[in-house]
Amino acid sequence: MSNDIELDGTDRALLRALSRNARASGAALAAAVGVAESTVSLRMRRLQRSGVIRGYRVELDSDVLGATVQALIAVRLAKHNRDEIEAFRAMASSLPGVMALFHMAGADDYLLHVLARDSGELREFVLTHLTGHPAVAHTETNLVFEHADADGWLQLLD
């Protein structure tokens, strides 16, 4: 549905302001964008209804949660029929510790971003949920030493 909407300069400025602080008040957004608060309210509803804004999330510090190990796990499926792919996706997205799931082109079919408390828990995750799964042919686990958010995507709003 979001492909049907045209973003003008006001929409783009509003999205930039929201990317800096998604909890900003309507008044703060109006001041940042240079429009009336009623305009912000109307634009926000339109952007949400159209699917441009899909939701708001809390970003937690994984270390505080005790999850000090992060990994990117590449998964290659044994079969490539639609039912197997959709079943794996549905299962994998709700596995404990999975932060994100990417369906990929190339040698691997999926890339899972996983949090764990330690290397033992990560090992158990792979053994319990992936290597024993009938749809999975191969996995490769890569440890993440550092994860930093990037804002280069904001250039798409220009």
In short:
Helix content is 36%, strand content 20%. By secondary structure, the protein is an alpha+beta fold.
* Average residue-wise pLDDT: 93
Beta content comes to: 15-25%
State the end-to-end distance. 21 Å
Major β-sheet annotation: 4 strands, antiparallel
DSSP helix fraction: 25-40%
Output the radius of gyration.
Answer: 20 Å
| Main sheet strand line-up | 2-3-1-4
Count of separate DSSP helical elements: 5
Shape, principal axes of CA atoms: elongated
Q: Structural class, from secondary structure content? A: alpha+beta
For the secondary structure, the number of strands is: 4
Which regions have little confidence, pLDDT < 50, spanning 5+ residues?
none
N-to-C series of helices and strands: HHHEHEEHE
What would you say this structure looks like, in words?
- The longest helix has 13 residues, at 37-49.
- β2 and β3 form a beta hairpin.
- α1 crosses α2 (26-33) and α2 (26-33) crosses α3 (37-49).
- It is elongated and about 55 Å long.
- The chain is 36% helix and 20% strand.
- With 158 residues, it is of the alpha+beta class.
- The chain contains 5 helices and 4 strands; from the N terminus they run αααβαββαβ.
- It has a 4-stranded antiparallel sheet.
- It has helices spanning 9-20, 26-33, 37-49, 82-92, 119-131, and strands spanning 69-77, 98-103, 110-116, 136-144.
